[in-house]
């Protein structure tokens, strides 16, 4: 099982990303892929910022909702609060709230690998599966 982070999702979606082939291979080979709703929320603006076709990005994101091999955790108040508390303990880090939700969720589920290019995952002791 692996967590699919926003950057990993972008690499899977966009064939123009240098890590696209590796991301698709890793995504397909995982027994289960875990995401949360904040990752999906970050994905669309990231696609916009990269100048990608938004209709394609929205269709890709919608398809994930129906994919039986992708588990999406919908962030509720308790998980949001846990992520805020996590950030309070890491004031020296430049982690986003989305990162914090990922870290809290990964620790709760015993997940060690993330499909991401984000070095913050390594800073927290997780395995980053994609090079930046």
Walk me through the structure.
The radius of gyration is 14 Å and the shape is globular. Strand 4, helix 7 and strand 5 form a beta-alpha-beta unit. Helix 1 (6-13) packs across helix 2 and helix 5 (77-88) crosses helix 6 (97-109). A five-stranded parallel beta sheet has the order 3-2-1-4-5, with helices on both faces. The protein is α/β, with parallel strands linked by helices and 132 residues long. Helix content is 55%, strand content 12%. The chain has seven helices and five strands; from the N terminus they run βααβααβααβαβ. The mean pLDDT is 97.
Structural Rg: 14 Å
Spans of 5+ residues with little confidence (pLDDT < 50)? none
The SSE string, one letter per element, is: EHHEHHEHHEHE
Structural class: alpha/beta
Question: What global shape is seen?
Answer: globular
Number of strands: 5
Strand content: 5-15%
Helix count equals: 7
Strand order in the sheet with the most strands: 3-2-1-4-5
Helix content: 40-55%
Mean pLDDT: 97
Q: Alpha-carbon distance between the termini?
A: 21 Å
Could you give a short account of the major beta sheet? 5 strands, parallel
